Amino acid sequence: MPEDLSPAPTPAEQTDLDILTRVNAMLENYVASLDDRHHKVVQFKSPEEISRIFSEKACDLSLKDGQPAGEERILKACEATLALSVRTGHPHFFNQLIGRADVTGIAGETLVAATNGSAYTYEVAPVFLLVEQEVMNKTFDLVGFGRDTAEGLTVPGGSISNLYALQTARYYKFPKVKTEGIFAIGGQPVAYCSAGAHYSYTKAALVVGLGSNNMVEIPMDSRGRMRADLLEKRVTEDLAAGKKPFFVGATAGTTVMGAFDDVEALREVCDKFGLWLHVDGAWGGAVLLSPKYKKALLSGVDKADSFCWNPHKMVGAPLQCSIFTHNKGHGLLQACNGTCATYLFQKDKNYASYDKGDWTIQCGRKPDAFKTWLAWKRLGDDGIRRRVEYGTEERS
């Protein structure tokens, strides 16, 4: 065999590999222990206690002294972090709308971190962009959006998905706003959501310049759904007052009541007034993966203009992974958000049609679709369906 002429690892490089090996072993033990009900969900400590534990058993939390910590202290810090963090994969963890991360998803997240890729251009992230498009295609098919008209992105959380929806809808209705600003609209733009909708709708209104008073909350019925009749009444009143309604944010699974808005009824109102209809499925959108629950809870979702859902909730992808899609034609995200930074985006590059970086409000973008894709490939449609149906029935 030919002689191996590659240089031996330096002591520093060997230490780095040792740390990685030992932390991986910690993580394996941690994940394997999650079903042990003898562990508490959290070893709750005060900020002062946590700082003291780190100082005594690992290394100071403070970076004030600027000195490097040795390998053993770094490893002790990792152990302390696992010991003092909330065990979100514990069978008794019910505090938030997340839970145990899928093991294959964790493997995918680890691989993404190791490659340190950024999903803006094909030349930098070829596999990750191809995988992302396959996850989008699957989402289009599940929602009922046409692949010839739909676009989508993974974004950092459902709140950002709702921001993308509002931003895209505003550009679609008032395209001059991109270059001339909100005053080009020539009146007060107004958007609407349910009184039970996620607060990210209001935050999105702050970011895009509407103001919180112009994300109007429509009252709910006894089941927690937005009342379409009161939406129609309010839109009529706002038009009479000279305002410019343009967006309705529906919800598939409200945070407190778990309500699913009547998408078909809201679609009728939106069609009457020419409004964009977005469905925030961050929490409940995973029922798309169950034919039984999709029909009961998301009838008419294929008529929405945009839709989002979070695989990091019911499907179990590691945080964060949110999918935003719209069905208003290819090129809309580029037109809405693009600035054509030529140092990154050149049309004459190989496979530039796969570049998504200029569709976004970001530059660097984590390839979040990969962990969802990897878990999906392992479980298959039926495995994902069973997971969603089990979660839905356990919470009913």
From TrEMBL:
The modification N6-(pyridoxal phosphate)lysine is found at residue 313. InterPro entries: PyrdxlP-dep_de-COase, PyrdxlP-dep_Trfase, PyrdxlP-dep_Trfase_major. GO terms for molecular function: carboxy-lyase activity; pyridoxal phosphate binding. Its cofactor is pyridoxal 5'-phosphate. It comes from Perkinsus olseni. This is Glutamate decarboxylase 2. Keywords: Decarboxylase, Lyase, Pyridoxal phosphate. GO terms for cellular component: cytoplasm. One of its GO terms (biological process) is carboxylic acid metabolic process. Belongs to the group II decarboxylase family. The keyword Lyase applies.
